[in-house]
Design goal:
- A hairpin with a 5-residue loop joins strand 4 (about 245) and strand 5 (about 255-260).
- This protein folds into 2 domains: about 5-75; about 105-330, Bira Bifunctional Protein, Domain 2 (BirA Bifunctional Protein, domain 2, 2-Layer Sandwich).
- It is α+β, with helices and mostly antiparallel strands.
- It is built from 11 helices and 7 strands.
- It has helices at about 5-15, 30-35, 40-75, 105-115, 130-135, 170-180, 220-235, 285-290, 305-315, 320-325, 330, and strands at about 120-125, 185-195, 205-215, 245, 255-260, 275-285, 300-305.
- It is about 40% helix and about 15% strand.
- The longest helix is centred in the first third of the chain and has 35 residues, at about 40-75.
- The structure holds phenylalanine.
Length: about 325
C-alpha cells in the first residue's frame, strides 16, 4: 500500500498528463486510501481521514487547473479556415466545397508579380479620394471638359471614388522624390478598384480594376515605356505580340498615346485585329512640378489600363459584368 504522499505524487502526475483529468478521482490508489480508513487504529483514524480528504482536495484543485488549461489550448487550436467549428461536434452535413479566390485577384497577383520582377514597387490604390488627386494634381484645369470624360461619382461631402488609378500618381511621385534626388529612379505600379458613373453593358461596368505604372529617371524615354509595356504583355500572355500606338489626349501626359496589341491567334484573333489595352505617355512637366520634381532635370512615363480587360482576353470572357456579379456558375470556372 502506498503512503498518502506517494499517492499524491502519482495522482498529480497523472492529472498533469491526462486529457480527461477528472477520471483521476476514480483511481484505485485513492479508493485504496479511503477503504483503509476503517482499518486504521481509532487513535489515528481522524488524522488519517483528514489527510486523505486534503489529498482529494489537492487533486481536485489540480484537476480544475488542468481542465482550464485544456480549454485554453482548444481555443488556440481554433482554425478559422475550417468550414465548420472544429471545437464542436461535426455537423451532419459537411460543406461539399470551399470558396476560392476571385479570378481578378488571382490575375492581379500575376500582373503584380511580373512588374515586381521588372523592378517596380506595387502599391494598392485608394477607393475614396479627392478632387485634387483625381484632377488638380494631374493637370486638369478647373472646369476643363476633360474632367467630364471620367464620369466621376461624388459623395455628399465632395469626395471621389477614383475613376482611374492615376489618382495615385501624385503620391507615388512625392514619395519617390527623395530616392530620385539621391541618384535613383521612381518605378512603381498602383492597382485597385476604380468607379465610373456609366451605363452598364457587356463592356462597361461602374466598378472595375486598373493598374497604373509610373517611371521617372534622368533619362527615361518613350522607347523605354514601349519596351516595358511590350515585355509586360508578352509575359502575361506568354507569347510574342505585335504592338501599336496612336495619339491620344490625357492632360497628365505629353505626348499621350493609346497602346494596342494584336489579338493573338491562340486567343481567337485574326491578323490586323487590334485591341486597345491602355493609355500612356510621357509624364507632363506640370505633374512632375506639382510633386516637387524638377521637370528640367527628370523625365518619366506613365500608363494605366483595365485589369478586367486583360483577364477577359486571356480567358475568352465575353461579358465584363460577370466579374462583379457574384455568380457562382462563373466563379467556379476558375
Ligand atoms: N488614367 C487614364 C484612364 O484611365 C489612363 C492613363 C494613365 C493615361 C496614365 C496616360 C497615363 O483612362
Amino acid at each position: 500500500m502506498h503512503s498518502i504522499d506517494d499517492v499524491r505524487q502519482i495522482l498529480l502526475a497523472e492529472v498533469a498528463d491526462s486529457q480527461i483529468p477528472r477520471d483521476v478521482l476514480k483511481s484505485k490508489e485513492l479508493k485504496g486510501l479511503y477503504s483503509k480508513i476503517a482499518s486504521i487504529d481509532p487513535s489515528e483514524r481522524a488524522a488519517f481521514g483528514k489527510a486523505v480528504n486534503e489529498l482529494k482536495n489537492d487533486i481536485e484543485v489540480a484537476i480544475n487547473a488542468r481542465e482550464s488549461a485544456l480549454e485554453d489550448a482548444a481555443v488556440v487550436a481554433l482554425d478559422v479556415t475550417a468550414p465548420w467549428d472544429i471545437n464542436s461536434k461535426l455537423p451532419d452535413l459537411l460543406p461539399t466545397e470551399q470558396g476560392s479566390q476571385h479570378p481578378l485577384t488571382t490575375e492581379l497577383e500575376v500582373v503584380i508579380d511580373i512588374f515586381t520582377r521588372m523592378g517596380f514597387e506595387a502599391v494598392e490604390s485608394r477607393q475614396i479620394d479627392d478632387d485634387f488627386h483625381m484632377f488638380g494634381a494631374l493637370n486638369f484645369p478647373e472646369n476643363h471638359p476633360a474632367r467630364d470624360g471620367y464620369d466621376t461619382f461624388r459623395t455628399e461631402e465632395g469626395f471621389i471614388p477614383p475613376a482611374h488609378t492615376s489618382t495615385m500618381q501624385h503620391r507615388v511621385l512625392k514619395d519617390g522624390k527623395a530616392k530620385l534626388e539621391a541618384g535613383g529612379q521612381i518605378a512603381a505600379i498602383s492597382y485597385g478598384r476604380v468607379f465610373r458613373n456609366e451605363d452598364v453593358d457587356a463592356t462597361h461596368e461602374h466598378t472595375f480594376y486598373q493598374c497604373e505604372g509610373v517611371f521617372v529617371s534622368e533619362s527615361a524615354t518613350l522607347g523605354d515605356m514601349l519596351g516595358t509595356l511590350r515585355s509586360f504583355f508578352e509575359a502575361y500572355y506568354g507569347q510574342e505580340l505585335k504592338i501599336k500606338t496612336q495619339p491620344a489626349y490625357f492632360p497628365f501626359v505629353e505626348p499621350g498615346l493609346e497602346f494596342a496589341i494584336e489579338k493573338p491567334a491562340s486567343l481567337g484573333g485574326k491578323p490586323g485585329e487590334w485591341l486597345e489595352m491602355l493609355g500612356c505617355g510621357m509624364i507632363h512637366p506640370n505633374v512632375l512640378s506639382a510633386a516637387g520634381i524638377d521637370p528640367s532635370k527628370y523625365q518619366g512615363f506613365a500608363w494605366g489600363g483595365g485589369v478586367d480587360r486583360l483577364v477577359m482576353l486571356k480567358y475568352g470572357i465575353e461579358d465584363l459584368r460577370h466579374f462583379e456579379s457574384g455568380k457562382l456558375q462563373f466563379l467556379r470556372k476558375f
